[in-house]
What we know:
Bound molecules: zinc ion
Strand content: 15-25%
Helix content: 25-40%
Amino acid sequence: xxxxxxxxxAEMIDPGTGEPARTTIEVRRDPLTGHSSRILPERGxxxxxxxxxxxxAREVQPSCPFCPGRVDQLTPRLPASIYPGGxxxxxxxxxxANLHAYSSHSSVSVYSARLHYLPLGQITRRLLTDNLATQVxxxxxxxxxxxxxxxxxxxxNHMLPSGSSLFHPHMQGIVDSxxxxxxxxxxxxxxxxxxxxxxxxxxxxxxxxxxxxxxxWLVSFAPIAPAELRAFAAGISSPSxxxxxxxxxxxxxLALALAAYAEMGFQSFxxxxxxxxxxxxxxxxxxxxxxxxxxxAFYRSDSTFLERLHWEGAVDVPPEIVARRxxxxxxR
Length: 332
Ligand SMILES: [Zn+2]
């Protein structure tokens, strides 16, 4: 597979020197869905932050519905037809119905009621394993009770810039009869193209991060969002098909990636694990993980008219630099 890229040159007159100045922009096309992405010269769009997240956490904690003493009273339970206990727990993780539904079946799962403040570097494999396990159990319970709801995804808005309305760290599950746009586009990709893409990235090596067992991790060639990573697991197509070993392996990979983000100075991210219907032949369960702007007063959103209205990524951190900064953590 040839990875499609085209170099564009912009010319302007430098206001300081009065001389012509040129800028190079690289337009890349995603090999799976065809969306394009612009790799811009580095100009510090995703700045690190000295915002005191811990102080902000303390400020909003007194009214947090996910904290101990309130999570059992203030969060909605799942209907008994889906899950008789109303809440799904694994370790410290607790899953309940999303007060603001986005689909026939929407869930929220906190890593722990006691972890109101959870910086990215402290999201451990254990915490991720338990949280993912509640979401897998939720997907299975919904699919058993409501067979047309075959499209499951596990997602995260982490910190307010990512779209999270509540500070307390959590994941979100959607199980629905209707795929999202990206689930539909990915499910339409021929199986051979997934194989070609992974073979190509493995061979080129510059964005391929490694293999944690069944999951293969790489930096996106044509990212939608900054520092975007992808992972693929052949042989399963839905989160509902993740067994305990695969949940733990996936948690390991996510913990490695989030620790790398923390080291790069990022504290907000989005994640989407895109399920297709269980048993979809040739579809590898896959995910995107990406950084969002750091929380600070009057911060700049990383999502602009390009991402929101043109569906076009525009990042000033080249994927190959991201891969170098992540280094060999996935190969140990
Ligand atoms: Zn809280």
